[in-house]
Amino acid sequence: MSNENLPMAAPVCDFCNTRPVTSLYPTQPFCLTTDREIFPDAPISIDDGLPCVNPNELHPVRGTAEYFDAGWTACEACATLIDTQDHEGLVQRCYNLNYAASSTDPEVLALHQLLFLAFFKHRQGPRLPHPALS
Question: Which of 2, 15, 54, 102 could form a Cys-Cys staple with 78, CB 3.0–4.6 A?
């Protein structure tokens, strides 16, 4: 059975998971891991303010690395926070929309802070109109 005639799902904001998206932010691709995902004695270096680890030091069972592509989509609300460099506002918006009702785990909030800090550090240039709007 072919999928070529199925409609594509509308893209969601890479930050808060809402629709519609209005913008695309070019970034350098990057990777993040947490200290739970590496061997206990693995050296962690700081690269431009972000914790980095050699991929060979990932734990063989629980070791995963998240790779992030070179373009991030954003809804208008998140794009406004990004354009004004409101890192904390962006973290709070996304946490409140996706986790506040179901989780009080401070680690979830800390992971969002790290992820969005990485986004801001790897961002390349101004926002662009999302291609789906063309």
Answer: 15
